[in-house]
Amino acid sequence: MSFYTTEEQLYELFSRAGEIKKIVMGLDKNTKTPCGFCFVMYYSREDTEDAVKYISGTILDDRPIRVDFDWGFQDGRQWGRGRSGGQVRDEYRTDYDPDILLNFKFL
C-alpha cells in the first residue's frame, strides 16, 4: 500500500466487500507516519473473505494491495517491527527511503 493512501480511500475500496467495522492505519513507531499497511475489520467473516478474495491485487495509488487474514493481535504489533520503525520487508527493498516522509505533513 502506498504511504500516501488515505483512510478515506481505504474505506471506499474495502467497503465494496462489506460493511467495515474499523480501519487501523499502520504507523512507523519512530515518526508516527503511515508505513504502508493497515488493518481492516469487518462485521462478518463472509465480508472479510470477500475482501481477501476480490480486493487483493487491486491497484490503489499506483501500488498493488495485498489482503491477508490477520490471525490475532499481539502486544507490540500496533507499531512497525522493523529496525527503522516501519515494516521489516521495507528494509530489504532497494527503492525504500524512510526519510522521504519527513517532508510531508500528516493529519
Descriptive notes:
- The protein has 107 residues and is an alpha+beta fold.
- It has one domain: 2-Layer Sandwich (Alpha-Beta Plaits), CATH 3.30.70.330.
- Helix content is 17%, strand content 20%.
- It has two helices and four strands.
- It has helices spanning 7-14, 45-54, and strands spanning 20-27, 34-42, 59-60, 63-64.
- A two-stranded antiparallel ribbon has the order 1-2. A two-stranded antiparallel sheet has the order 3-4.
- The radius of gyration is 14 Å and the shape is globular.
- 10% of the residues are buried.
How are the SSEs ordered, and which strands pair?
Layout: H1 7-14, E1 20-27, E2 34-42, H2 45-54, E3 59-60, E4 63-64
Antiparallel strand pairs: 1-2, 3-4
How many strands appear in the DSSP assignment?
Answer: 4
* Number of DSSP helical runs: 2
Q: What would you report as the Rg, rounded to the nearest angstrom?
A: 14 Å
How many structural domains does the protein architecture include? 1
Strand composition percent = 15-25%
Mean pLDDT level: 79
GO molecular function: RNA cap binding
Main location: nucleus
Family: Belongs to the RRM NCBP2 family.
Pfam family, one: RRM_1
